[in-house]
Structures are given as C-alpha cells and as structure tokens.
Amino acid sequence: MGNTRICLLGVGAYLPERIMTNEEWTEHVDTSDEWITARTGIKRRRIAADGEGTVDMAVAAALCALDDAGLAPDEIDEIIVTTDTPEVYIPDTAAFVQYRLGAREIPAYALGSSGCAGFLQALDIARARCHFGVGRVLVIGVEVLSRLISWNDRNTSVLFGDAAAAFIIGQGKLGAEIIGVTAGTDGSRVDILMMEVGGSRRPFTLEEAQQGEHQHVIMNGRELFKEAVRRMSEAACRVIEQAGVTLQDIALVVPHQANLRIIQAVAKKLDMPLNKFFINVQEYGNTGSASVPLALWEARKNGLIAGGDLVLLTSFGAGFHWAAALLRF
Ligand code: ACO
Q1: Which of 40, 99, 250, 290 has the fewest C-beta atoms under 10 angstroms from its C-beta?
Q2: Rounded distance, CA 262 to CA 228, Å?
Q3: Final residue of a structural domain among 144, 175, 206
C-alpha cells in the first residue's frame, strides 16, 4: 500500500426532523419508556417524513460532507453507498445519488445488506481505492429503518432510527489520517439477525405479506449482544495492534450505537473508562450503517476531538460482520 497518506477530508450528516420518543412507541406496541431505557439506553429516534426517501437523506448528508471538505460534487471521483434500506431494489441507491448530487460520470456502487458494519467495510474499500490512485471517495451510510421494520413487533421496532452520514476520503496532507482499517465476517452466524422473506430463497407471497412477514426481522437479541461485544472488542484490538499503538493512546472510541449496554460491555472488556466512549444512542437509536459516521460527526461538532487525537471506530452488523478503523486527527 506504500506510504501514501489517506485522510478524512470531510464529514457530514443528515437527520430527519421528526423526533419519536419512547412514550410514542407505547401507542403502537406493548412497551414502556422504562423498558426501552433500561434495556437499550435509547430515549428517542428520528423518523423520516412521508415522502422522504433513502436518496434524499443520502444526498443531504453528502452535501454536508462536501461543505465540510470545501469541495464541489464534481470533485468527487467515486461513490460508495451502504444501506439496508435501498431506494429501490434495482438499480442500487448509488446510481440515484450520483445523478442527484450532480457528480461526474464516476464509478458509484452500493454495499447492501451488510447491516451496521457496512460503513466501515466501505471505508476499508474506499481507503484501498485511494491507495490505488482514486482521488476522492464519498462514502455514505444511510438508513430508513422505520420503513423496513414492523411497527407491530416490539422486539425490534423500538431499537431503530433513520439517519444518513457521510465521509469524504482521499490522499492529502490535511484532515485526519486513516491509519488502519480491519474487517471480518463469520457467516455461520447469519441466523442471529436476518430478514428471511423477500429474497430468492423465499420470495414474497401474498399470504406472508398480509401477515406482515415481509417486515419481520428475526433477531436473537442475546446472541447478538454477546457477538457484538466480542467482535467489536476484538476488531478494536486488532486495528490498534496493527498500528503499533495501545488502548491507552486512544483519546476517543466511537462505537456502533446499537445499545448502551453493549457499549458499556465493550468498555469493560477493553478495560477502558466509559467516558472515553462517545455515546448518542439515546438520541437516535440504532441507525444501522449511518451510526458510526453520525457519531463521529456529532463528536467532532461537539468539540470532543482535538488535533493529534487518536480516534477508534468499531462496529458490528448482521452477517455477522465487524470492522474497526483508527484515525489520527
Ligand atoms: N418492550 C417491552 N418488553 C419487550 C420489548 C419491548 N420493546 N421487547 C422485548 N420485550 C420482552 C420480550 O418479549 C421478552 O419477554 P419474555 O421474557 O416474556 O419472553 C423480554 O422482553 C426479553 O427480555 P430479555 O431477553 O431479558 O431482554 P434483553 O435484556 O436481552 O434485552 C435486547 C433485549 C434489548 C434486544 C437485547 O438483547 C439487545 O440489545 N440485544 C442486541 C440487539 C441489537 O443490538 N440489535 C440491533 C442489531 S442490528 C445491528 O446493530 C447490527
């Protein structure tokens, strides 16, 4: 890969206006603010407006990141979009984004269905593309999970929220250096988080759709919890080891925001104080592939990252996939 310096040139985010509280979920399912808060730490989440789609949100986040980087859309050389909630099934969301953003006729592609780890997987690819010579890559994580899930299933509905966030990365001297990225997959654990109906294995039937099966997320929450803690911690240690630094050198950890208790357990496993972890799951819930870049955007906006800081990103997602990245600001 050589010694080329690959940097984070800009970060942006977009959040739908509508805020939905835990209390509001009690109108749809048998739940309570107490249960959701105690089990997940989530207090509220954003819900996309009627008519607001994945591309609208992705483009808004991309424009925010371009503004942050001081770049125009025609200065982007490649686009990767990660999402579990595509605009349509065919073609991919990236094609819509390329046109709506006003980008040149550059390569644009999507990483779909790799859940919450998708963004850091895409960052890994984008970084490699920049090493290969591509100038600037726009990476977008976007989810309209409120349209994917069943609003009648209390096991999953209350966990998620809608958001988009984006990074622009490229070669350069300015911006946070992406020191390392690591990623992995254990496909033997596909069973712990899956949407079974709708693919080639089990296409939709009218009966299943009438029973809401097309929105049924199969989730083994306890197994997911254990795998999440294990894999996020392992990925964090691996990327740090590869960079030749230690956990003590880390100024801030920006983990995937699925559940406060998972973040607390990762902190314990890594033997790091919780105050080194950026947490905003209480505000937005689990926003899937938007979660990590959204958290980094907010941490930076809140002045929590200083020049010279080492910042560790770590994530897990359905698959089971995991990934971590190390940045020096
Ligand atoms: N309100 C009230 N009760 C509920 C709700 C709800 N919203 N949801 C589930 N319950 C009930 C269940 O029906 C069950 O009741 P039962 O015991 O009578 O059958 C009980 O609560 C479940 O209790 P526990 O299993 O003890 O709940 P737990 O403490 O494990 O918390 C949770 C469940 C929050 C899902 C937890 O396991 C978890 O966070 N797991 C990880 C989930 C996750 O991160 N999902 C996102 C994956 S996507 C991604 O980020 C890759």
Answers
A1: 99
A2: 7
A3: 175
| Interval 96-110: pLDDT, tens | 999 999 999 999 999
Give me the pLDDT at residue 113, please: 84
Mean pLDDT confidence for 59-65: 98
Among 175, 195, 223, identify where a domain stops: 175
Same domain? 207 vs 264: yes
Please tell me which residue in 7, 64, 116, 130 is annotated as part of the active site. Answer: 116
Nearest CA to ligand 1 atom 20: 155
Ligand 1 pocket, residues with Cβ under 6 angstroms: 31, 35-36, 39-40, 115-116, 154-155, 158-159, 193, 221-222, 224-225, 228, 258-259, 286, 316-318
Q: Is 135 helix (H, G, I), strand (E, B) or coil?
A: coil
pLDDT in tens, 302-320: 999 999 999 999 999 999 9
The reply to whether 1 falls in a domain is no
Is 320 in the same domain as 246? yes
Query: Region 254-261: what's the mean pLDDT?
Result: 98
Predicted TM-score (pTM) of this structure: 0.96
What's the burial of 206, exposed, middle or buried (CB within 10 Å: 0-12/13-18/19+)?
Answer: exposed
Residue-number span of the structural domain to which 279 is assigned? 179-328
